[in-house]
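Deviation from plan, reported transparently: NAP complex.
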Amino acid sequence: MPQAKTPTVLVTGSSGFLGRNLLKFSSKKYKLIAQYRYHQPAAYGDKIRFLKLDFLAEQWKKLQLLKPRVIIHTAAMASIDECETQPELAQRTNYSATCRLVDFAARRKIRFIFISSDVVFDGTKGNYSENEEPYPVNFYAQTKIAAEKYVMENLPDAVVVRPALFYGLALDGRPSFTETMLQHLYAGKQIYTFTDQYRTPILVNDLVSALWELVENSYCGYLHLGGPQKVSRLDLGKMLCAIFNLDENLLIPVKSREVNLQARRPLDCSLDISLARSLLKTRFVDCRTGLQLAYR
Ligand SMILES: NC(=O)c1ccc[n+]([C@@H]2O[C@H](COP(=O)([O-])OP(=O)(O)OC[C@H]3O[C@@H](n4cnc5c(N)ncnc54)[C@H](OP(=O)(O)O)[C@@H]3O)[C@@H](O)[C@H]2O)c1
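Because the crystal trials were delayed, the predicted structure below was used instead.
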């Protein structure tokens, strides 16, 4: 009997925080094509092929010979402040490159999982569900909302995932924000922590597990992926201090309006994750458990 072909998944942004974790915790059932721009990530397992491609350079013909069954599109200009100060670059990276990848997927009938963000909401209400209207308060959100719309208009079978802020081990990449917090606390350095910006942070391992489930799943539409708990950055800092027995006095509480940020931040973009809970087997741990799992 002929052997069934092993399906291939293309992970874009595989050198980023999320991308590296997607590679590390991928299912053995798939072959991976791992796209990166500058920094080739570590290979976990032998079913992986790397693709060095800058979406803003004319290197798209490298994609033409590929026919993955699924694309998980994580690549983006993910810094909210950089998007605000370099809007043209942000538009080309987060919107135009996504549109081009969507067109490629549409021509080849590839399942498409697009990584958007919780920051698409204006943060005036919190506990946002999938059927609530996004409204951008910064340029990053504007590019993500435009990309989301293009995905859904051109690929009705796609999934637009809106993850909450994610935390955990950045593996061999740039430290994640919780890792930076821990480094500062261990070094005895003060950290300014917002008291009025609320999110429902998700452990990167849970996010990755949910995304691999979605590769198998036929769900299409918007999906919110977050943790079960609404917290501020100060709350997260306090949890780290309690778990690792560090000095809580190093956390300096500040309100958003007291700091001169380049881009405005929505205050409460906590997510309602009822749909994900009903759809997926992945369970989403609370922050204290997640921080312990990540760093103990
Ligand atoms: N981090 C969070 O808490 C968070 C929360 C909600 C949503 N998100 C979204 O989740 C996704 C992943 O975030 P992340 O934190 O993992 O981002 P990240 O660590 O900054 O990684 C971004 C990735 O995009 C790649 N990339 C950027 N510009 C590119 C270009 N022109 N051509 C090709 N590749 C390019 C980078 O490649 P190189 O490293 O090789 O340059 C890197 O692999 C993003 O879409 C982000 O908007 C993030």
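The radius of gyration is 19 Å. We consider this an acceptable substitute for the interim report.
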